[in-house]
Amino acid sequence: xxxxxxxxxxxxxxxxxxxxxxxxxxxxxxxxxxxxxxxxxxxxxxxxxxxxxxxxxxxxxxxxxxxxxxxxxxxxxxxxxxxxxxxxxxxxxxxxxxxxxxxxxxxxxxxxxxxxxxxxxxxxxxxxxxxxxxxxxxxxxxxxxxxxxxxxxxxxxxxxxxxxxxxxxxxxxxxxxxxxxxxxxxxxxxxxxxxxxxxxxxxxxxxxxxxxxxxxxxxxxxxxxxxxxxxxxxxxxxxxxxxxxxxxxxxxxxxxxxxxxxxxxxxxxxxxxxxxxxxxxxxxxxxxxxxxxxxxxxxxxxxxxxxxxxxxxxxxxxxxxxxxxxxxxxxxxxxxxxxxxxxxxxxxxxxxxxxxxxxxxxxxxxxxxxxxxxxxxxxxxxxxxxxxxxxxxxxxxxxxxxxxxxxxxxxxxxxxxxxxxxxxxxxxxxxxxxxxxxxxxxxxxxxxxxxxxxxxxxxxxxxxxxxxxxxxxxxxxxxxxxxxxxxxxxxxxxxx
Length: 496
Hints:
Layout: E1 7-9, H1 11-25, H2 29-47, E2 53-58, H3 62-76, E3 80-85, H4 92-103, E4 108-109, E5 120-124, H5 136-147, E6 152-155, E7 177-181, E8 184-185, H6 192-197, E9 199-203, E10 219-221, H7 224-227, E11 245-249, H8 256-268, E12 273-278, H9 283-289, E13 294-297, H10 301-310, E14 313-316, H11 324-335, E15 339-342, H12 345-352, E16 361-363, H13 367-373, H14 378-383, H15 385-396, E17 399-402, E18 408-410, E19 418-420, H16 433-446, H17 451-469, H18 483-494
Parallel strand pairs: 1-8, 2-3, 2-5, 3-4, 5-6, 6-7, 7-9, 10-19, 11-12, 11-14, 12-13, 14-15, 15-16, 16-17
Antiparallel strand pairs: 1-10, 17-18, 18-19
């Protein structure tokens, strides 16, 4: 079951949850503000125990109120704290918080264009309600925070970040860490939100879990222990035919590496048999590199037919190309109505000739491919990744993986919350990673998983394997380095 620690909410949902919390507990808004400040101060003490000079930047709303109360706690603990206020608080609870800070002897000053030196800055300017680009003094203050040498702690959400989408609304605070109050916001876990938030921590403010029950979250973080259960243990009395036959189709002239990566990934992730349909020039090299693959030269549609008849699942697209050869194989493969994973040029061809799928199908676009599938542009996709992945799933009636920082998975029927991958790293931004993912998902489909489960487990295993493989650094990781970590990660799911 999903827990508050895995559920992701929009700003509107968080406001309703806040109201529910007050009604359920009998607390007042100021009480929640005090709890938020205490949680933030606990993070501050743990992360920056030696920070003596702290500057808290406060806005005019409840986020600013959290900042004033945090400032008071830090001052009471013996820290040298100053508050910079954009303007006088407008929210009643924030006004009470500011008065509490001033009664305790805390100074408040306006922003003069420069920030005083500090060991730590706190962003308490804007919370979840911001829906516009910052301008004027607020924009200048954000610029100053980003230019500062000291770390920045953001309260609830970095100012300038959209809570719902994770897109920057223009200028945006680039926080070192963010403490999210009560629940996670969708924008904290995908796209630009990951960099803007830095290290994220959740503070539920000791509220009962029941306050989340009446609000249906539209997205949730993947949870590895749960995903481990979707791939059953293997009995001892089995043979390779029990675990499916994947046919990987692709590798036009000069692109044999892509289809090799997809094919080997399918083997490494447990497919019983893997065949490769590719150009004749690649056959010898593929067999020499990985003799366990069954590699066939395929010149056209008729030669593909015999392979299609024996296959359970198709991995279509790695290195397929956009020439007549690839187009012909793509058309014939889809006409078979086999369970399939589509990536790379298979997606580009689909964008030119859209169709809704009757058979189980998983699409794995990166943002540029997603833009083509929606007749859009990459910037629009990244501006609202959640909406984009759901729109593709609905248009093509397929399970969709929108790759990128915080990869998203949407169900073909839209019945499940969007799944968000919390793993992965920048070292995985290298050629061939998508081919490995295609093979991994195809292998899981071949072993009997649904499109939804295969996509989620495939994305999670791929990302976690990438984290293991990138232990040596953020640069220089090769897609081929993923195979052993993939086996290692899936060992817990497949029990060998």
